Structure formats: structure tokens, C-alpha cells
């Protein structure tokens, strides 16, 4: 298949392109992108002082439909993924949905490697969409569930000849996939002063910020992470929240792009998710709640007129048995946690292990990879 026929069948080839959703789509992949923006103010900020939420839950599967399709399209064009060959990837769910869409679109079987924390509804949904879900049963002693999943992916790749793993943690196409989202935001909002984004692989924060900075060079990027996540230099611990946070240090995180990072605890995200749902109808999962909490704080504390965009990666449906289930939240001790008005503040990301909403305006790569690269260390 040449580039032109790919364009005809599956929408824009260039990640910078910005194609409208057709009135009648011939393929589900054409329904990805051009998601709406919703104004969010109270109870996060006083009237007139809100933020603009980009509702990525309006994609057929969620935000990761974008990198799912883009990484597979590019791998096929490079010849890294041969026609009909299997795709195997580790995912907490959202990329699995995007890869299921890519598999269906381009004709590849998809295996999603996950862990017991994947919601049963997501396992069923992925299976219904034609993907195979392979669950690891125990965490890696130091690298946690993520490392265990990555090792299982390596095992499956070795066993299946010609199989391809997109490796969302370090594949630059995961970052490049978000150029259209940045173009959409510019078309929808014009100038943007602040972007608030959750960080898991680092893909969407890096890609959207890079695209926005071409138009708004002074953009501030606020990263939102989970407590007990290693990404920004905190000690790893058990995490209830999925999507944001990681027990590894993904290469796609663009540390230099962030002006500050906030860590959020599960109870605080639950409070924000439920408030969003009640007041604004639009809500989502852990990352949506955590991002809303931080974006609301930015809207309250930054000068009036600051234009703040926030990315809501998915919708609420897969979280009905967790975030929105009173009994489950009581069991976890996270129901009725009202977040503080202001986050705690630490001067360095590893000052101490944070247990609730905390901010740090020093953002560093815990592995200092830029310096290692400059010194020729690999
Ligand atoms: C629901 C959800 N929110 C946020 C993220 C983090 O996005 P990224 O991997 O682009 O950093 C993910 C990643 O899997 C996700 O699934």
C-alpha cells in the first residue's frame, strides 16, 4: 500500500495535518480526533476563572486512539510491521483500545499485556473488540507491574516470529501522534498560556506542548503525576490510579518541557472526578480527576485572563466500579477526601515521599539522560 492509498483510507498521514471528521465515516479510524472543548469553572475556580478541557473521551476509544493508529501506520510505512503480523504491547487499557482500533483498521492481530489491576469491563471490551488480553500475575520485584508487563511483552515477542511492539514508552511516534491535537487546540482556542497534562508514558504532554509552543512560545506546561510514581523522581510504591504515573522512567517524558509537576493522591482524584460529573456532566478516570484538580488550582491562582487548557484523556465509563463506586472507595479509604485549597510544596522532587497533592517547580530527569547523552554515555 502506498502513502496515497493510506491517506485515502485512513485519514491524514502527516501528524501535523488537521482533517475534519467526515459527515459519514467509512472507517472507525476516521472518527478519531477533532474532539470538543468544555469550559470548566466551579467548584474548581470561581465563575469566570476556569479552564478549557479537551475531551479526549469523545474519541471512539480514548486519547490513545491517536498514538495507536499513528504508531502502527508509521511502523507499516517503515516496514517494521509487515502486513498481517501480530502487534504485542503493554497497556493499562487506553492504548490497548487504540491498538485494537489500529489492528482492525490495518489488519493485524493485537495482544495487550496487562495486569490484574485492569478493570474487568476493559478486559471484556478489549476482547469484544478482537484483542487478546494477556495478564501477568505478579509484579517485578523492583520495577513493579509495568516492568513485569514489559518482560512479558519481550517473552511473547521472542515466541511469535515477526511480531511488533510499538513500545509506547520510548517510541517517538507516540509523541508525534499528538501534533493534530495541538493543531485542534490552536484552532479552537487560539493563544494558550498554560497546558495541564497527566503523565504516564509522557507522550501526550510532550507532543501537545511541542505543537502548541510553535504558536504560543511562552506556554507553561504543568505535569500531573500520581503519588508513588517514579517518573519525576519520587520513590515508587503501590499505585491505585491507572493511566498516569509509572514505576519506570519512560524515555518519552520531555522533562525540559515542564515548568512544574504536581503529584496527586487517589482520594483527591476521586473527589475531583465526582465533582466534575455532578457539575459539568463531563468527567473521566483517575487522570481526568487529577488534571482537573491541578487545572482548577491554576485557574484560581494565576492572573485573571490566563488561558488554561487541560487534557481529559478519557471518559468515566470504565471507572464505574472504582472511582464512582462508593463501596469500593470506602474499602480503599478514599471516599470523601476533600483536597486542600493549595498543594504542599517541595523544593526538590526527591525531598521526601509525598502522600497527597504536592507541587514542585524543579523538574529533572531522575536518570539525567540529557547529560548522559551529551557525555556520550549510552
Ligand atoms: C487514562 C490515561 N490518562 C493519562 C495517560 C497518560 O498519558 P501519556 O502516556 O501520554 O503520558 C494514560 C496513558 O496510558 C491514560 O491511559
How many structural domains in the coordinates? Answer: 2
Structural class: alpha/beta
Q: What is the CATH fold-level name of the largest domain?
A: Rossmann fold
Helical segment tally?
12
Coarse shape: globular
- Largest sheet composition: 8 strands, mixed
Average pLDDT score:
93
Number of strands: 11
- What distance lies between the first and last C-alpha atoms, to the nearest angstrom? 36 Å
Organism: Streptomyces katrae
InterPro entries: Cys_Synth/Cystath_Beta-Synth, TrpB-like_PALP, TrpB-like_PALP_sf
Protein name: PLP-dependent cysteine synthase family protein
Keywords: Pyridoxal phosphate
Description:
The chain is an alpha/beta fold and 378 residues long. It has 2 domains: 216 residues, 3-Layer(aba) Sandwich (Rossmann fold); 107 residues, Rossmann fold, CATH 3.40.50.1100. It is 35% helix and 13% strand. The strands form 2 sheets. It has an 8-stranded mixed β-sheet with strand order 1-2-9-6-7-8-11-10, with helices on both faces. A 3-stranded parallel β-sheet has the order 3-4-5, sandwiched between helices. Helix 4 links the parallel strand 4 and strand 5. The longest helix is centred in the middle third of the chain and has 16 residues. It is globular. The chain starts with a helix and ends with a helix. The N terminus is likely disordered. Bound molecules: pyridoxal-5'-phosphate. The site of pyridoxal-5'-phosphate has 17 residues, from helix 3 and helix 8.
Amino acid at each position: 500500500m502506498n502513502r496515497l492509498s493510506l491517506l485515502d483510507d485512513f485519514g491524514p498521514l502527516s501528524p501535523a495535518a488537521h482533517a475534519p471528521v467526515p459527515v459519514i465515516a467509512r472507517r472507525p479510524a476516521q472518527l478519531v480526533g477533532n474532539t470538543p472543548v468544555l469550559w470548566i469553572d466551579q467548584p474548581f475556580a470561581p465563575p469566570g476563572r476556569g479552564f478549557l478541557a479537551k475531551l479526549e473521551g469523545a474519541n471512539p476509544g480514548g486519547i490513545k486512539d491517536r498514538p495507536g493508529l499513528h504508531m502502527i501506520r508509521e511502523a507499516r510505512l517503515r516496514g517494521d510491521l509487515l502486513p498481517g503480523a501480530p502487534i504485542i504491547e503493554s497497556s493499562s487499557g487506553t492504548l490497548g483500545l487504540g491498538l485494537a482500533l489500529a489492528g482492525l483498521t490495518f489488519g493485524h492481530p493485537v495482544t495487550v499485556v496487562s495486569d490484574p489491576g485492569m478493570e474487568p469491563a476493559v478486559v471484556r471490551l478489549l476482547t469484544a473488540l478482537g484483542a487478546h488480553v494477556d495478564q501477568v500475575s505478579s509484579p517485578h520485584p523492583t520495577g513493579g507491574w509495568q516492568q513485569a508487563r514489559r518482560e512479558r511483552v519481550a517473552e511473547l515477542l521472542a515466541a511469535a516470529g515477526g511480531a511488533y511492539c510499538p513500545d509506547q514508552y520510548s517510541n517517538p511516534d507516540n509523541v508525534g501522534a499528538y501534533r493534530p491535537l495541538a493543531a485542534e487546540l490552536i484552532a479552537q482556542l487560539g493563544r494558550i498560556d498554560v497546558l495541564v497534562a497527566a503523565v504516564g508514558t509522557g507522550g501526550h504532554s510532550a507532543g501537545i506542548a511541542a505543537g502548541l509552543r510553535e504558536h504560543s512560545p511562552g506556554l507553561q506546561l504543568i505535569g500531573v503525576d500520581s503519588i508513588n510514581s517514579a517518573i519525576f523522581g519520587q520513590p515508587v510504591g503501590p499505585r491505585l490510579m491507572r493511566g498516569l504515573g509509572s514505576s519506570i522512567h519512560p524515555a518519552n517524558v520531555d522533562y525540559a518541557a515542564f515548568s512544574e509537576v504536581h503529584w496527586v493522591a487517589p482520594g483527591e482524584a476521586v473527589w475531583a472526578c465526582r465533582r466534575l460529573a455532578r457539575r459539568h456532566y463531563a468527567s473521566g478516570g483517575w487522570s481526568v480527576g487529577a488534571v482537573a484538580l491541578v487545572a482548577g488550582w491554576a485557574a484560581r491562582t494565576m492572573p485573571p485572563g490566563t488561558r488554561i487548557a487541560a487534557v481529559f484523556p478519557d471518559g468515566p465509563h470504565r471507572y464505574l466500579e472504582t472511582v464512582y463506586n462508593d463501596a469500593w472507595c470506602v474499602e480503599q479509604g478514599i471516599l470523601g477526601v476533600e483536597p486542600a485549597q493549595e498543594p504542599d510544596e517541595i523544593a526538590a522532587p526527591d525531598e521526601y515521599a509525598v502522600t497527597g497533592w504536592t507541587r514542585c517547580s524543579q523538574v529533572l530527569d531522575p536518570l539525567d539522560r540529557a547529560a548522559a547523552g551529551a557525555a556520550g554515555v549510552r
